What we know:
By secondary structure, the protein is mainly α.
Amino acid sequence: MAFTRSGANASLDDIAKEARVGPGTLYRHFPTREELLQGVYRSQLEELAAAERKFAQTMAPIEALRAWLLLFVDAIAAKELIAPALNTLVGDHKKVFAASYAQVQEAIRSLVKRAIKSGDIRKDLDAMDLLRALVGVANVTSSPDWQKSARRLVDILIIGSRPTK
């Protein structure tokens, strides 16, 4: 993806070429860079939310939760590339994407609820605590290996969320 390689200032012509559409098509759907960035970010969050359903259908509850949390780490990394531009262009991007955030929150809550029901996760776990921990690690972006650290943290969180005996 062009934004991954070049950041938020990626050439819109390169993006159109990569998407295999003409520049006119890109500009018709996304008349401004701001709208394109919003579309990319919204799409990433919606894909993350949709992964919950796929994982829940194909994996055991604890594995589905782990896989989704790892995908969340990847989403944080992708967001890091475009967040500065989003903040510059639209101010508080959380307001713009409230509906997408709600979908992400519902996804993690559903996965945690399923894992609690199966007995894999302790009953008092707050699903949002898992996300807060991962976002917290990501906010220490001065470390070049924060993403590896966050991926290790997923396993620590899963192990620490097991029921106490």
